Structures are given as C-alpha cells and as structure tokens.
Amino acid sequence: MQPQICIITGSTLGSAEYVGDHLSEILQQQGYATRVENRAELADVLNDKIWLIVTSTHGAGELPDNLRPFIWQIAQEKTDLSHLKFAVVGLGNSDYDTFCFAVDEVEKTLLKQGAQQVCPSLRIDVLTEFDHDQCAEEWLPNFTSQL
Question: Has this prediction a pTM greater than 0.85?
C-alpha cells in the first residue's frame, strides 16, 4: 500500500482547491490514501509524513488567507518538521513581479524547519496554462517517484 498524502491548499478564489481535489483523485486512483485540508490546522497535520501543498499567490506575493496562519505558526513556533517530505504546486500570474512568491515562502519556511523537499515545485502561470488540473497532473510523477 502506498503512503498517505496530506494535500494542503491555500486559495483565494478556489483554483488551488480545485487543483488539490483533482490531484487527490488522481493519487487515489494510483493507490495512495489522501486527505485534503483547505484550512489546515498544524495540530491536525503535524503527524503526517507527506504534505503536498497547493497554493495560489495573492496580492503582492502573499500567501492566501486560508494558508497564511498555518505557515506563520510553523515559522513562529519553529516546529520540527524533520520527519516530513513535501512538494509544492503553485498558481500565479507572471504579469506580476511576485509570480508564485507563495511557493517560495512555503519552501523557505518548511526547509528552515527541517522538512525534505522531494522534487522541484511546479509553478503554473495562469496566463499561459489554462488547464491547471492537467498541468498539475502531468507534473505529479515528479513527486510520486520520490516517495
């Protein structure tokens, strides 16, 4: 049996949640157990061994409101994440200088707390990639092959 993957989403308009749900379905078809957290609480996911974070970038490069407190808590409490493997899928608009800055913030925070990033993050440009689900699905083997 494949390991369980906790999919944590950060979304302002819902796009990242839709991608997270789609990836959950694909992973389940591949034999993985998944759980999607759209408003993650650290206490609820801390014991998970694998996180797949799907986030949009909001405003001037910020984390979405439903992900910011979670990432902030990890950073402020200096949570030990040495047991954790993770990957990040980001959605952003390349018209902005802050394209996918939320991805950078998530990576920086988790790596600083000892988590292991298993593959390069996917940065989906919503200006050129119209099928976000398909784009993420095509990237998915980069993640699963490292688990």
Answer: yes
